[in-house]
Here is the input.
Amino acid sequence: MISCIIKNSMQKNIVLVEGAGFCFGVKRAIDIAFDVARNYKEGVFTLGPIIHNPHVVEKLKELGVYPLEELSKEKSIKTLIIRAHGIPKEKFNEIKQKDMEIIDATCPFVKRAQSLAEKLATEGYQVVIIGDREHPEVQGIFSYAGPDAIVINSSEIPILNKKIGIIQQTTQPLTKVKEIMNELINSRNEFEEIRIFNTLCNFTSKRLQATEKVARNVDLMIVVGGKNSANTTQLARLCKNMGVKTYHIENAQEINKEWIECITTIGITAGASTPQWIIDEVIDKIKEFIN
Amino acid sequence: MISCIIKNSMQKNIVLVEGAGFCFGVKRAIDIAFDVARNYKEGVFTLGPIIHNPHVVEKLKELGVYPLEELSKEKSIKTLIIRAHGIPKEKFNEIKQKDMEIIDATCPFVKRAQSLAEKLATEGYQVVIIGDREHPEVQGIFSYAGPDAIVINSSEIPILNKKIGIIQQTTQPLTKVKEIMNELINSRNEFEEIRIFNTLCNFTSKRLQATEKVARNVDLMIVVGGKNSANTTQLARLCKNMGVKTYHIENAQEINKEWIECITTIGITAGASTPQWIIDEVIDKIKEFIN
Here is the structure.
């Protein structure tokens, strides 16, 4: 994992984490949305904001692609884009009944987790999802996971069936997943089968590892991304927990010159929903302050 | 788990562990062997001693059932009994080619472990067997587990494939199995699937738990069973590790009166290959000493 080091005349270094910003699934969903925006005239909507980033959502609005919180009868929806997080099975079936074109931009990693949840439930496993039950991605996966499914987000393990299948929210950190799996195994005295599929997104775990490596060697970490983005918040928490001074910002305007006055190295990382242009603006702003 | 308490006039207690002695699979194999002995005239052999207990083997010899170490051309084998441990697939196929009747007394729990090993290997899993590679049961299971199979007996985890299926030697202690599974999960950074089938024998784990409970409350433990029986040795080790004075004996003749002179409570447990009559003799001998 090589990170890009940008030196400046005052011997301050800016270290940009390799893989910061859009992950594969988000990049794909945004490319699809902009592609649709260019080729379709009207009535194009995304179900929920395409990603957890207000700047991208605004840019799409300018091109005529609007986010919908709920399906409304009033709106004349011709084309509906499903975002990277995916949606619950029931909602998908509801949309399919309507007279509109569906463009499914669900991340292939999330789609795989949904399929595995459905396969495990069909084969008689109680599906255990390691993740955040409030997250739209988890709500989507959960809807495929059968009536016995549960979501676990800590090492407190409830009573489970004898045959369980474990999957994970794609953006969960591997260390946390391992901790929960260990507790789960320790809590089982009479089990029949435990089947664990790795549904973690490789991009997310690599970004976490690369961020950890950079955070270990800098005086300050700037984490760029929507305040409502779970994976950006996770990056900020990781850096704070490592004891490095950390600021979670949404854009370059939030940077305070005082933050970087008395330090030598600044690390920058960004969540999966942060576009490159925002990262570039942050780097430019920091350069402006230290030059 | 209720244990049987035998009180005597001198206020010494003998506590017999519930489930001590023959497990289901061993009892079944011995019943089959004695049944064959009663109904067949000659040429009846068991492949290896029917169980790890010289007394049972002697009794069967008296009835005309002899243990064979290897298949020999000279011997006129008419009927061959496969013992509870099971045998390797290749040996089973070799026997099938010969002109003899096969009576398969493999323990159904071991048979299930063999079938799961074969199923996992066929479905592309690297089979990981938690157990003792020298044990005949493990050698049998291993022969069904495909070319990539490995046996693990400690928390030192080798490099494994991305898709692994885990099974256990039926008599392994659950605590040890959990420790190894935890280490295995912690050692994995990039895995595709981990599928764990519980192939532990319920009888064995219940006997271990019941022995532990009794050992906690007595002054002395007497563990009865063949010195070459892995599960009897395991019971003796458990008691010793708990800090209670422990003797591993094969029969009542080995008991020394001095062992029980200055103590109040004596616990007795026995491995899966120890017949009831030997346990009864041990109890009678102790009663004789303390009366």
Notes: Chain B has a mean pLDDT of 91. Chain B touches chain A through 16 residues (CB under 8 Å).
